[in-house]
């Protein structure tokens, strides 16, 4: 009923809008009220004894893992391997000593992810999961289960669970950096106060909904859409493409910007919309030069950046969307919002059912 959707047309819209509130809850759970440490449940994890991370998941949760790889490697200097559960389980990879195996799942019941977890038992030093459903199989079978506290997610395409997964994974990466002596108490406290700005930044991203809706209405007429991003924005490009195909049935693909010239550039013509995710960070100029290669071939570019980025690179754009300026590490969480809203409004424009896309299930509990 309309009531359950809190006045929104779809659960997906409600769940997108809920993100500032649920992330505030997740932050409060791990950070306490005014604290400047990250508290893990139970015995927690001692990252000083860990020398490698293996992350495994499916779907959107897999993209949360791909994003977290950048964080764990950058701030905690831990080598990270990320795999799709259905590949991992049958490849039967060797698990070296000092490996922490990390499983991310909204439902905690995805069959392939659970099988991958069971494969790691007795091989990995510890098994940690990041889950929304606290009583799930994956949570129960882990040494440590970290709740994401997103609340019930009804829309088949994951939204608030994704950004809550990202928030918990970022806190875990910061905690790992601290345990490993790479982040002093003061530096950790600074990162924590940056984390506390997430709800306000997400609200600022949500404030751009009208602009994003207009861009999405244009995208909804396309047959194919390409998403580009570099560094932490590459997984966000993958997530944007996944969301768009899942709920609007528009064929979408994502590439790391640097790979453009190794293939997808052959697809660019005046009919090809290209969504570029590029905050004004250290990689901005590189991504913009890839974007210019698209513009030179008359591709229709939607640039999602912050005001500083848009001021520098607005020539020839088809559409632009301004995100708030934010600390680098938080950018993936903020840029998830326009990725979700583009897909959602494209689906609404096409008249597809955003909450119950054809052929898809919320939780894939059989192989
Ligand atoms: C399905 C859902 C996705 C979800 C994936 C993994 O494909 O449609 O939204 O990301 O399963 O589910 P999990 O519950 O393990 O996160």
Explain briefly what this protein structure is.
This is Glutamine--fructose-6-phosphate aminotransferase [isomerizing]. The active site is at residue 362. With 367 residues, the chain is of the alpha/beta class.
Task: Describe this protein with a few key phrases.
single chain; 367 residues; alpha/beta; five-stranded parallel beta sheet; 10 strands; binds 6-O-phosphono-alpha-D-glucopyranose; glutamine amidotransferase
The ordered string of helix (H) and strand (E) elements is HHEHEHEHEHEHHHHEHEEHEHEH
Query: How much beta, percentage-wise?
Result: 15-25%
Q: How many helical stretches?
A: 14
User: Helix amount, in percent?
Assistant: 40-55%
Distance between the termini: 32 Å
Bound molecules: 6-O-phosphono-alpha-D-glucopyranose
The main β sheet shows up as: 5 strands, parallel
Identify the overall geometry.
globular
Task: Please state the average pLDDT score.
Answer: 96
By helix and strand content, what is the structural category?
A: alpha/beta
Low-confidence stretches: none
Q: Radius of gyration in whole Å, from Cα?
A: 20 Å
Strand order of the largest sheet: 2-1-3-4-5
List how many beta strands DSSP finds.
10
């Amino acid at each position: 009923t309309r009531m359950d959707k809190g006045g929104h047309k779809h659960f997906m819209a409600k769940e997108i809008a809920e993100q500032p509130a649920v992330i505030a809850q997740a932050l409060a759970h791990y950070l306490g009220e005014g604290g400047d440490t990250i508290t893990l449940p139970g015995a927690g994890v001692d990252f000083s004894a860990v020398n490698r991370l293996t992350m495994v998941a499916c779907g959107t949760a897999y993209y949360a893992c791909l994003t977290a790889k950048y964080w764990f490697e950058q701030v905690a200097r831990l080598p990270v391997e990320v795999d799709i559960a259905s590949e991992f389980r049958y490849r039967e990879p060797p698990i070296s000593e000092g490996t922490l195996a990390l499983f991310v799942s909204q439902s905690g019941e995805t069959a392939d992810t659970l099988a991958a977890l069971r494969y790691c038992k007795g091989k990995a030093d510890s098994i940690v999961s990041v889950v929304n459903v606290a009583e799930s199989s994956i949570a129960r079978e882990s040494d440590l289960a970290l709740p994401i506290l997103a609340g019930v997610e009804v829309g088949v395409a994951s939204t608030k669970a994704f950004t809550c997964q990202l928030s918990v994974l970022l806190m875990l990466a910061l905690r790992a950096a601290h345990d490993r002596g790479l982040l002093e108490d003061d530096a950790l406290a600074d990162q924590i106060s940056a984390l506390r700005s997430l709800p306000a930044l997400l609200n600022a991203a949500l404030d751009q909904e009208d602009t994003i809706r207009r861009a999405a209405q244009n995208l909804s007429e396309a047959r194919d859409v390409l998403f580009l991003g570099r560094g932490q924005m590459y997984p966000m490009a993958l997530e944007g493409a996944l969301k768009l195909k899942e709920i609007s049935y528009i064929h979408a693909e994502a590439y790391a910007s640097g790979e453009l010239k190794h293939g997808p550039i052959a697809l660019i013509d005046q009919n090809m919309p290209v969504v570029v995710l590029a905050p004004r960070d250290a990689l901005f100029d590189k991504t913009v030069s890839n974007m210019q290669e698209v513009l030179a071939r008359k591709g229709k570019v939607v640039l999602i950046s912050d005001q500083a980025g848009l001021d520098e690179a607005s020539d020839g754009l088809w559409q632009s969307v301004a995100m708030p300026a934010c600390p680098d590490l938080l950018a993936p969480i903020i840029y998830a919002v326009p990725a979700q809203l583009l897909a959602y409004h494209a689906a609404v424009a096409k008249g597809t059912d955003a909450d119950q896309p054809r052929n898809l299930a919320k939780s894939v509990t059989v192989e």
